[in-house]
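Hi everyone, sorry if this is the wrong subforum. Our group has a chain we'd like a structural model of before ordering constructs, and none of us has done structure prediction before. Sequence below.
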Amino acid sequence: METATRETLPLWIGGRPVAARTTRHGDVTNPATGAVIRRVPLANAEDVDAAVRAATAAFAEWRTWPALRRARILMRFRELLEANKAGLARVVTEEHGKTLADAAGSISRGIEVVEFATGIPHLIKGEFSDSVGSDVDSWSLRQPVGVCAGITPFNFPAMVPLWMFPIALACGNTFILKPSERDPSLALRMAELLAEAGLPEGVFNVVHGDKEAVDAILAHPGIRAVSFVGSTPIAKYIYETGARHGKRVQALGGAKNHAVVLPDADLRHAASTIIGAAYGSAGERCMAVSAVVAVGDAGDALVAELATQARRIAVGPGDAPGIEMGPVITAAARDRIMGLIERGIGEGATLVVDGRKPNVRGHEHGFFVGPTLLDHVTPAMSVYREEIFGPVLVVTRADALADAIALINANPYANGTAIFTRSGHAARRFQQDVEVGMIGINVPIPVPMAFFSFGGWKNSLFGDLHVHGMDGVRFYTRGKAVTARWPDDGSAAPGFHMPTLG
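Answer:
Right subforum, don't worry. Here is the predicted structure as C-alpha cells:
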C-alpha cells in the first residue's frame, strides 16, 4: 500500500490508515514546481483524542514486553528502512525539495538512531547495590512514561522523527507523531514499515495538522511527554504550554550557527566545507552554517574563495541529475528570504553573490532562491540577528579569536558552532570558552552520532534533556528506586525515628 499516492492523506491510528474527522485540509506542494500534489487533513481535538485512546490501550501490553523483544521489532524496522531508502528519499524530495542524495543521507542518519535504540536491553539497565544496610539491598529501575508525542519540522521529515520515536518505543512507550503539514507523507510510510516489522496496533500513530492539533496534544491529559523541533518562538510556546499541563517536554528551537575561520586555516578546505554546510538543503537545516566569522587577515581571501565556490553550485529540482541545491519549502519562505536579503543590502552589507533571481529553466513556478553571500555584516543587521533558514551566508569580521568567541557568546542562539584552524591550542580554547551546545573543530556541521545526544543551549533548547543518545533514554523513562529487606523470623520491631540502614 503506497499511502503517499493518495489524493487526500489519511491519519494512522490503531495500526491502520483512517479518515480524519476534521473538515479542514491543507495543500501539499512540490516546491520545485509549485504544484499541489496532495491534500492533508488538519486534525482537530477529536482526531487527537482517537490517537491517544489507541496509544493508551496499546501501552498496557507494550510496556510489558521484554526489552529484547521490542528491540527485535526495531531491528526489522531498521532493515525495512534500509531496503526502502531510495523510495523514501523520493518522497522527501517530492514534498520538501532537497536533493535525492541529501534526502537519502538524512534517512541514513535516522537509521543510526534506530540502530542505537536496538541496544535498549543494555541501555535501560539499572544499578544494584548489595547490602546497603543489614540484610538490605537497593536497586534502580527505568520504566516508560506512557503515551508520548513528537511534533516535528518540515526540513527533516524522516530524520527528526527517527531521532524520537525509536527510542521512545524501545523504552516501552507508545507514540503519536504530528509531522509537518508541509511534507507529511513520509510519516505514513514509516508507520506502514513499522506495521510490516510487526509493531502491535496502536503503538505508533500519526496525526497530521497545524496549531489546532498541536494545542490538542499539549492539553490532552493522556499524553505524558512531548518532543519538539522547530523555531525558537514555537519551542518556547511548546515548552511553557506542555509544562503547564504537567507534561515532560523537550523543545529544540532555532539557531544562528557560526563558523570561525582563523588565518592559519586551510582556506580552500574551510571554504569548501562551509559552502556545503551553508547551502546544502537550501540552508533549511537547524545546523546550517549561516554566519562566518573571519578572524584577522583571513577575511578577503576567504570571501573570494566562498564566492567562487558559491557561484558553481547547480540549482534546480532535487530529483534532477547533477543538482546540488533544490528549492526552499514554500513561496512564503522564498519571499521572506528575499526580503531579508533586501534588508541586509539596505542596512549596508556588501552583496558578493546574488541569489535573488535564479534561472531554473522549466521550473519558473518553483520556490527557488540561489546561493547568496553577504560580506561586511555587523551584529546590528537583520541578516545577522534573524534565523534566515535559507541559502544565505553572511560574513562578519573579528580582530582576534577572543573577539570571535565573544561575538558567538553574545548571540541568543547556541545550537552549533565550528572553528577552522591548524592550532590545537586555539581549538581547545574555543571548545572550552564558547557557550554553545555542539562544537565542530574543522567540522562545519557537528551533528553528534546517535550514541551521543543532540541539542543546543540558550534559546536553542527549552528543557533539560537533548534528543537521542542517553538523554533520549532518560527523557522517555522515569527512574524508580527500590530498597528491600527479607526478614526470616518476623521479629523486626517497629521504629518511630528516621530510618537508617547502617
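For your construct planning: Residues 412 and 459 are 6 Å apart (CA to CA). The longest helix spans residues 45-62.
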